[in-house]
């Protein structure tokens, strides 16, 4: 997978696909490329699913949202729309895709912003919501401290984080004794690199982090957060609830 030059304009892959589906019912898939795996697809219609069509982990996360909510990486806005309409919550939906934000607003979201999560400043939320492998935006394991520091800045005193991820341990080779074999100097197995494409547009390569629950717990504890397992999925995925450890009960 060849890296694009730094001066290459970044195409709005998700925005283009979401807009085409919303306006023209164009169901062309988004393709996901990795140097380590065969290409995968993201069906665009899946980004428009309603509550009944969502996986159990996502429904559990939405059921646990409260107060003022920040939906990070909202895409077409399906999660935020449910919270706004059915739970009557004050929801701000953000995404780095201008096209996705435009459609999310057209679908009825009252508060939308095209901004990177790490650029958000001087605001407070009761719930930070990260779904569809929410840990992905952290990028790499050594960015976890920065992630928790930024979350603290955005959380109210009694605030919480709802975040999902997957343990990619099942992809690793096993030795003859059934134990996992990992090179001592290799990167953490959940650190991935991808690019995505839609029709004739291809994104630059980006880092994406999958993190196992025990590793997330360790990182949370190091940064003075509690971390509890809310729900496990059927495919090595899970939903975690994190709170600042020094919050009053």
Characterization of the model:
With 249 residues, the protein is of the alpha/beta class. The chain has a domain of 153 residues: Vaccinia Virus protein VP39 (Rossmann fold, 3-Layer(aba) Sandwich). The chain is 24% helix and 28% strand. It has a 7-stranded mixed sheet, with helices on both faces. β6, α5 and β7 form a beta-alpha-beta unit. α1 packs parallel to α4. The radius of gyration is 18 Å and the shape is globular.
Mean pLDDT: 92
CATH class of the domain at 51-168 and 210-244: Alpha Beta
Largest sheet: 7 strands, mixed
Shape: globular
Q: How are strands sequenced across the largest beta sheet?
A: 5-4-3-6-7-12-11
Considering DSSP H and I runs of 4 or more, what fraction of the residues is helical?
A: 10-25%
The percent range for strand residues is 25-35%
Radius of gyration: 18 Å
Order of helices and strands: HEEHEHEHEEHEEEEHEE
The tally of strands reads 12
Low-confidence stretches: 1-6, 175-185
SS summary, helix count:
6
CATH architecture of the domain at 51-168 and 210-244: 3-Layer(aba) Sandwich
The CATH topology of the domain at 51-168 and 210-244 turns out to be: Rossmann fold
CATH homologous superfamily title of the domain at 51-168 and 210-244: Vaccinia Virus protein VP39
The N- to C-terminal Cα distance equals 49 Å
Report the structural category: alpha/beta
